Amino acid sequence: MARRTKRLWTDEEKRSICFQTMAPGISVAQVARRYALNANLIFKWLRDPRYAPDPASAPSVSEEARFLPVEIVVEDKQVPAAAPAADSHIEIELTGGHRMRISGSYNPEALARLIRGLTA
What we know:
Layout: H1 11-20, H2 28-34, H3 39-47, E1 89-93, E2 99-103, H4 108-119
Antiparallel strand pairs: 1-2
């Protein structure tokens, strides 16, 4: 039978794990499963002032998914009415001033996953 070894978590790891429990819509059990540990251990860490996240730094509900302003820019060059899909492009401005430009055809679901990953 394999012998289980005790996992030692650094103070920074404990703080990070406790901070993740503050995200809207995320439960302590979900975070515990992510790290393969017992939720009671996270609750213990949350009671310890060394690891408990500052409520002021917790993400607010307003930081969840929300509508963002979109600006449609008309280009000066003439575009034929039936432009091939390979010539089409989309430009998305992300938080922090980053810009993403996609040319040609794309999978909207894959693009949405990519954007969520980049803005998380």
